[in-house]
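Subject: sequence -> structure tokens, single chain

Hey, anyone have a minute? Need the predicted structure for the following. Not urgent.
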Amino acid sequence: MEKRWVLKQKGDTSLVSGIAGELGIENALAELLVQRGVTSFEEAKAYFRPELSQLHDPFLLNDMDKAINRIESAKANNQKIMVYGDYDVDGTTAVALVYAFLKENGFEHLDYYIPDRYSEGYGISFQGIDYAQKENFALIIALDCGIKSVDKVKYANERGIDFIICDHHRPGDELPEAVAVLDAKRIDSTYPFNELCGCGVGFKLIQAYAQTHDIPFDSLYKFLDLVTISIASDIVPIIGENRILAHFGLKLINTNPRPGIESILGVANIVRKPEDEIKKEGAEAGLLFSRELTISDMVFVVGPRINAAGRIESGRNSVKLLVSPDMETAVSIAQTINDFNTERRTLDTQITLEALDIINKDDKLRKARATVVFNPDWHKGVIGIVASRLTESYYRPTVVLTQSNGLITGSARSVKDFDVYDAIDACSDLLEHFGGHMYAAGLSMKPENLKPFRERFNSIVSASITDEMLIPEVEVDLEVNLNQITPKFLRILKQFAPFGPGNMSPVFMTRDTVDSGHARIVGKNHVKMTVYQESVRSDPYSGIAFQQGEKFDLIQKGQSMNICYHIEENEWNGVKNIQLNIKDIRFCDESQ
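Reply:
Had a minute. Here:
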């Protein structure tokens, strides 16, 4: 699919040269900092050297004092507390975090609950509340869900069960009548940062409890691994507090991961270095694994395996894994979860092919500006992944639907700058439930509403999406020449991490490059090449262009090309070198 390249506007020249001088770095790197809102020495220090002391006071969250008072009351009166969370990564990590913290701080009457994706659906369920009543729970702490559960919280109140809501999704017109509603997206929110994930809100809850009871902050550090996995997997912006939390969480995962996380990495073939190698490198290196793990590893290795438990069987398995006290217990659960992940991959591949077949055989659907596909037999646990896959193939807002418990239920995904949540909200009278974000949402409806929903959703998208939005975009941070890429340049660039939404790994563009003549196809459809820029007599750089095999002939013939790429450090047999991860190629006769 053709992509449009959008080169970011350059920052103020005096600002860029000023920060370059203050930091002793070249202008290209200073330009990247200014793009990220870093315009002074102090801001650069906070960006490159985050500190946990920069985290906000948790009591700035509305209702935090009420939440802590209710938790203290439950402890004082020996009341049972249920820690309740959604079945995805964000929910299960949040439950593991709050449950483990309370457990180690003297709360004895405690259990956790993860709803069943198939019999209960997303979020707080009547079934879960009935279970809480039967087992005499007086307080439910809901994590990563509940902000729109007005009817469920009322149902619980009528049965003498209190709720504390810890959520990060957009609220509806009415907040639930809970003891406390912790959500920085509340209209009346006084909290300085509104992009926390669900697990992040859970962390603020335990931070507030620790502050109140003079529990040292150091004792909370061990939970930052869970918060980081959630930040990565829930695709929240890695800016502000999220960047601080992720910075320290990644350090923890790389040096001292909890048994549950180390066991997940193990079943994914990321294993510890031999003890003698770790000792030889010394405490300074600190890395337990053969390479430094990044946000990408949390997104593509750890997150999908934690998610797989809730997709295939029960998210309760993920919580068990994350609170496992030792490797022996953890490895057994991790292997089971890894098997679930293998099954999940088979299912999502099969269903994606079926969905693509539906689109390809329907001329009207193929040419539409939105995709809505339905099959009552599709596995509910993977339709969100399928929606993402279809968005990659047909770049447009996409809803994938199946049938479960008498309702049609589904997941939506979007494209850059189009708010799919708002489009679904405009269909709310046809829905039983919906929730989510600008780029991802979930929904359910009665079967008779499928046709009117499809028509209205398509109509809304068609009326509001532009032609430009339907072309995938490569946002280019900076144009550089290859001779600007030096080991020092890469060393400083690596300190821009952790990368993710809001702080993406920079995309560079270089004009008039050619392959040195050794390009080859690797894997299924990838091109391995070595490129250089004759105009500046640059050194050759190794490059890999994933899924771009159709361009191989022109690359091999030495056609001059403009390339967009990330700069990475590749390690092979203990030797590190710079590699260009080439996102897109334009041959010069077709470039603007």
